[in-house]
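queue> pop job 88
queue> type: inverse folding (structure -> sequence)
queue> payload:
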């Protein structure tokens, strides 16, 4: 199902680019958009993981560079991957005080799990293991490709909107303003980005939560972790691009149009599901 969604998402965005190219540039714009669509599809599939990690400022965790983090994080991750029957992912740390985590990559063989410095600070070992198991659940359930591509395309749409606004204020040869294109992009960008987020089903969070409970042996660790994430997100709000909000185990607090990008059930709903009261 995720493979079908990925094809539909990339195909839909390709069609969107072709439409915009022809609308604003005629045949020449259409050909340029076609080339852009080919590059976008190639980049999204092979480099969305690197894009997500770069956007978040993640740093690779190694025994040499981060011995304390590695000694705590690597053994529990290795135990969980052996239980789940998936390869060991690359581990990353985010220079972020707000506790959070995400997984990215195109398949279990090419996957990364990133945790914030704040998460390592506030979680005990049981809670940290449950969070890591949740992210590995996304890897095992093959959610990571569609999530990574959605983040990449969301960032691309934001860039297009800014590009459109920049050129929308310029004047053509007749001295008439071309602001309509910029205004069009201003309103179209959040709508298109919202459609991308809709490709990421809310049920994937329930599924990853259930995977965490299964492979850690109890829902208690994740229940406690979710409660801490809810509390700490109020104390230390996390700054993140709306295009990446769906990737995190707990959604960053987003104001304005960013609220439309929510792809997570509420904390209460997730805890109820974990405890069997959903």
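queue> result:
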């Amino acid at each position: 199902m995720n493979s079908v969604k990925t094809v539909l998402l990339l195909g839909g965005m390709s069609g969107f680019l072709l439409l915009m190219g022809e609308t604003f540039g005629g045949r020449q714009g259409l050909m340029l958009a076609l080339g852009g669509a080919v590059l976008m599809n190639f980049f999204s599939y092979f480099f969305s993981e690197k894009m997500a990690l770069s956007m978040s400022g993640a740093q690779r965790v190694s025994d040499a560079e981060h011995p304390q983090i590695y000694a705590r994080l690597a053994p529990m991750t290795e135990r969980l991957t052996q239980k789940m029957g998936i390869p060991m992912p690359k581990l990353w740390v985010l220079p972020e005080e707000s506790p959070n985590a995400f997984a990215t990559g195109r398949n279990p063989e090419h996957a990364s799990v990133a945790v914030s410095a704040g998460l390592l600070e506030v979680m005990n070992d049981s809670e940290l293991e449950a969070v890591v198991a949740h992210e590995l659940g996304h890897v095992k359930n093959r959610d990571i490709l569609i999530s990574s591509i959605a983040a990449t395309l969301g960032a691309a749409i934001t860039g297009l909107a800014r590009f459109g606004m920049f050129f929308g204020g310029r004047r053509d040869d007749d001295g008439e303003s071309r602001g309509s294109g910029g205004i069009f992009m201003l309103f179209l960008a959040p709508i298109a980005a919202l459609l991308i987020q809709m490709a990421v089903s809310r049920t994937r969070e329930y599924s990853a939560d259930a995977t965490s409970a299964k492979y850690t042996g109890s829902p208690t660790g994740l229940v406690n972790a979710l409660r801490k994430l809810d509390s700490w997100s109020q104390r230390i709000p996390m700054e993140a691009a709306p295009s990446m909000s769906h990737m995190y185990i707990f959604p960053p607090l987003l104001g304005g149009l960013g609220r439309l990008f929510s792809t997570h059930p509420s904390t209460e709903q997730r805890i109820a599901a974990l405890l069997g009261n959903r």
